[in-house]
Structure formats: C-alpha cells, structure tokens
Amino acid sequence: MKHILLLIIGLALLPHPTQAQLELGFDAGMRVENMAGMNLTTFMAPAEQIRIGAHSKTLAFEALMSFTHQRMRGASATVIKVLPGLVYYLPADTYIRGEVGALLVANVGSASQFGYGIAAGNKRQIGPGPLYLRIETGVDKWVENWNYAASTEYRFLVGLSIVLGGNDPRDPFRGQSVHNFFPSDAAVLCDHIL
User: Fold this and answer.
1) Cα(178)–Cα(193) distance, rounded to whole angstroms?
2) Residues 6 or more apart in contact with residue 10 via CB below 8 angstroms
3) Which domains does the chain have, with CATH numbers?
4) What would the mean pLDDT of 151-164 be, rounded to a whole number?
5) pTM over 0.85
6) Would you list the DSSP string of the chain?
7) What is the mean pLDDT of the chain?
8) Could you give the percent of the chain with pLDDT greater than 90?
9) How confident is the model at residue 12, as a pLDDT?
C-alpha cells in the first residue's frame, strides 16, 4: 500500500506535459556500498546508469536506471536498478532529490530489494545550448530481504545531460533557466494555470 501511495503522490506532482522539459543524461562516478560490514567500491566510467526526467520550473520527476552484469569466481548475476525520485530545484543551480526504488537481482533464482534515499547536487548549463553538467552526491538504504542483507550505498556522480522541450508559448517563464523560479513567482504561475 505504501508503494502505491508513493506512486500516486509522484504522479500528482508531475509537470504539465506542455510545460515540462525532458532530460536525458548519463552519469559516471564512484559508488561505495556497505553490506554486512564489508565495503564494495565501484568506479563507473562511462556510466552503467541513465537518467530520464520530466522537469518543470521547480520540480522534476526523474528516474535513475542501471543494468549491470556481474561475474565473480564462476558465478554471475544480472542487477537491474530503478530509482525514481522527486527533484526540488533551489537557487544557484542546486537541487535536492528524494528517491525510492527497487533493485532486481537475477542469478540462480531472483530476488528484489526496496530502497530509499536522498541526494543533493548542482546542475549547470554548458554554453547557450541544451547541454548540462551535473555533479551529485547521495546515499541510499536498501532494506533487508529474505536472501539479501540490508546495505547502505554512497554515490558521487558527474554527468552530462541534454534538456529538450519546455517551449510552450503560453508559459510566462519561457526562456528562463529552470533555476530562476522562486516562491514569489507562485502567484504569476497560479494566474497562468487558472
């Protein structure tokens, strides 16, 4: 029930399609996972992870997705991670991100883990075009499942993304940076929506 409620809240906060921007990006970086007292450090370049999001001026719904095939000592596993989250943009190109998701593992059998976390980052436009540089750090807690121990994952990512769309001529904020919207603009936005 909690998962369905989180999904409904996330869908209710999605930006209107004519005002939303679509962002596609790839990340690289480092991940440190602590499970049962052992640390596993992974360096990712280029990334195993893709980022897809729908953005408005202050909020974004975006998902981090990754596909990994691991092989160690003759055993192999396929890991699929889907980590959707809500991003809130702050002034000065900074953002915070709350996220919940699932980790699906297929080896001899299959299993899944539920996770939640938070991240903070900085997203800056590169030149006058739609290309952005993103630097992010975050922490995710993966809860225990019957055959997988609980773990904590720390990540530091650097990524490039391209932002498409968001050019609705009725949008009073058209042409402004995603980060130039402040709460004082809420009255103008409400007038526009109504």
Assistant:
1) 18
2) 61, 84, 86
3) 2-193 (2.40.160.20)
4) 88
5) no
6) -HHHHHHHHHHHTPPPTTT-EEEEEEEEEEEEEEETTEEEEEEEEEEEEEEEEEE-SSEEEEEEEEEEEEEETTEEEEEEEEEEEEEEEETTTEEEEEEEEEEEEESSSEEEEEEEEEEEEEEEE-TTSSEEEEEEEEEEEEPPBTTB--EEEEEEEEEEEEEEE---TT-TTTTS-GGG--GGGHHHHHHHH-
7) 76
8) 19
9) 55
Rounded CA gap, 160 and 117, in Å? 22
CA distance 50 to 82: 10
Other beta carbons less than 10 A from residue 175's beta carbon: 8
Asked whether 154 and 139 are in contact (CB, 8 A), the reply is: yes
- Between CA 20 and CA 137 the distance in angstroms is 25
- 166: tokens are 């968001």
Find how far residue 48's CA is from the centre of its chain: 14
What's the CA gap between 133 and 137, in Å, rounded? 14
- Two tokens at 143? 């809860």
pLDDT in tens, 38-95: 887 878 776 667 788 887 778 888 888 888 877 777 778 888 888 899 999 898 789 9
Tell me the C-alpha distance between 100 and 57, whole Å: 22
What band does 2 get if pLDDT is binned at 50, 70 and 90? low
Nearest alpha-carbon partner for 175 in 167, 183, 184: 167
